[in-house]
Amino acid sequence: MVNKNYWLRICVGFFGVLLGSMAMAAPVPQRIVSLGSFVTEELYRLGVADRLVGVTTYCVRPQPAREKEKVGTIVDVNIEKIVALKPDVVIATPLTNARAREQLKNLRIPVVELPQVRDLSGICDQFLLLGEVVGKSAEAREIVRQAREKVVSLQQRVAGLPRLKVFIQVGTNPLFTMNKDFFIDDLIRRAGGINIAREASSGIYSRESVIAADPDVIVIATMGVAGDDEKRQWQKYPRMSAVRGGRIYCVDPYVLCDPTPDNFVAALECLIGFFHPQDGGR
C-alpha cells in the first residue's frame, strides 16, 4: 500500500506548480497609481513612467512627475479620482490613510502596501518588491546591486574616523527627528555619526534635549527660506558645539527622507561631506 505522505507530497507539489504558473501568467500592470513620492521616483527609475496615471501632490521628482494627474496627498487620497483613472494597481505607503486603502480593496482595486523601512536592507527589499510588481525584477536587482556597492565604497572613506554626535531635524512645529525606528538612523551610522535621538521614544523631540546633548552637527531637512529660518533659530545658542563650529546644514528633504536606493547613496555621500569635510572626500 502506498504511503499517504507520498500522495500528500504529490498534491502539494502539483498545487505549488499550479499556483506558480498562475502567478507567472498574472498580467503586468499597465495603469499604476502611486501614493508616495518615493514610489513615484522609483517607478521612473525602473522605466515605467508611461504607465503612471496618478500621483500625489508631493510627487515632484523627477520634474515630469509634476504633470501627472493628482489624486491627493501622501495621507489623504481622492477615492473617486483614483477609481476614474481605472488603475490596474495602486501602490500605497505606510502613510496612506488606512481607511482609503480598505475602500480601494473593497472596490476590487488591487493595492500593494509597501512596508515601513528601517535601514538600507529594508529599502532594497522594498524596491525589489516594486520591481516584481511592475515586471522589472532584473532592472531592480541591478539598481540595488549598484547602490550596495556604492554604499560600501562610501563607508570605506570614513572607516576609523572619529564619530560625531548628530541631530537630524525633519520637522519644525513640533520639532521632529528620527530615532532608531527610521532608516535615517542607519544613514547616520554609515556616515560615521552618532544619532543623539536614537533611543528617543518617538520622533517628537524638544529643543532643550538637543541643547543638552550638544551635537557636533545639525542637519535640517528643508530648503530655502524655511531652512535659513531654522538655522537662525539654532544660532541663538552659541555655546552649542554645532553652532560654534559653524556646522549647521540644510539638505534637500526629498533626498534625505525618501527611501529609495539612489537617494540612500546620495544622502550618505551628503552626510559624509557634512560630518567629515576634510577626510570624507578623500
Give the number of helices: 12
Mean pLDDT: 90
User: What's the CATH architecture of the largest domain?
Assistant: 3-Layer(aba) Sandwich
- Nearest-angstrom radius of gyration? 22 Å
Number of strands: 8
Which oligomerization state do the chains in this entry correspond to? single chain
Structural domains: how many: 2
Shape type: globular
CATH level 1 class label of the largest domain = Alpha Beta
Low-confidence stretches: 1-24
What's the CATH H-level homologous superfamily of the largest domain? Nitrogenase molybdenum iron protein domain
Report the CATH topology name of the largest domain.
Rossmann fold
Helix content: 40-55%
Model description:
The chain is α/β, with parallel strands linked by helices. It has two domains: 32-114, 3-Layer(aba) Sandwich (Rossmann fold); 142-275, 3-Layer(aba) Sandwich (Rossmann fold). 47% of the residues lie in helices and 10% in strands. It is built from twelve helices and eight strands. It has helices spanning 4-25, 37-45, 79-84, 98-106, 120-133, 137-158, 183-190, 207-213, 224-234, 241-244, 253-257, 261-275, and strands at 32-34, 52-54, 89-92, 111-113, 164-169, 193-195, 217-220, 248-250. Helix 7 (183-190) links the parallel strand 5 (164-169) and strand 6. 36% of the residues are buried. Residues 1-24 have low confidence and may be disordered.
